[in-house]
Amino acid sequence: MPHAHAADGAALHYEIHGSGAPLVLLAGQSNNHHWWDPVRPRLDAAFTTVVLDWRGTGGSDAPDTDTYSTPGFAEDVIAVLDHAGIGRAHVYGTSMGGRVAQWLAAGRPDRVGRLVLGCTSPGAPHGIERDAGIRRALADPATAYATLVDLMYTPAWTAAHPGPYATLGDPDLTAHARRRHLRASARHDAWDALPRIQAPTLVVHGTDDRFNPTANAPLLAGRIPDARQLLVEGGRHAYFEEFADEATPPVVAFLNDTGPARTA
Hints:
Elements: E1 3-5, E2 11-18, E3 22-26, H1 40-44, E4 48-52, H2 70-84, E5 89-94, H3 96-107, E6 112-118, H4 132-139, H5 144-152, H6 155-160, H7 175-186, E7 201-206, H8 216-223, E8 228-232, H9 239-242, H10 244-256
Parallel strand pairs: 3-4, 3-5, 5-6, 6-7, 7-8
Antiparallel strand pairs: 1-2, 2-4
Helix pairs in contact: 2-3, 4-5
């Protein structure tokens, strides 16, 4: 399995599958590349997909150093692309992956073709944060798991799909990596950088997302020049998995520039 190396020497595991134009898929906070497993076959059919394990997750190194930040993760993505010999790629980032994708597109426009930002936000200083009750429930070990599942999926979905779920965090994550991932995501603030994004951009969000509130979607779409917006009716934070039939086709069409994405 290939590994790239970041500027600080950290080994970064990544995988490449599919065929077609390259598409980088960026997972959420504290998650590894398996985040994309449920929807990746559809994307592999249309693109050469690149997934990576964030530092601290999966097969990547987990240094206990102050090297975890959303701009830093963006540089890790560039290291992976360089190692893979990919000069320019489309980027689809969800949750914290969408935060990283903002820096990637704003700072390295030469490396990003088209951009999809899913269930993400510009960061706490200007974004809409989840409410305090959700924060308390996630911080309580007695309620954290059930709360997270409910934030990700509808009850109807979990009743029919009892798990395990690939979006609930890397089970082998160390305590220090978990803390550093949380801090990196919490400190994200790309507000001033968003107008510099040149890539054609689609902002996607579930209408029922309380983990990363849906109100962040119009904030991003309004801040990024000429961005489009797609709201997935009924979707929660893992809209891309549960509502793949509704979300994936317009995302693929947008990335292929074969037709207008539905806007809301």
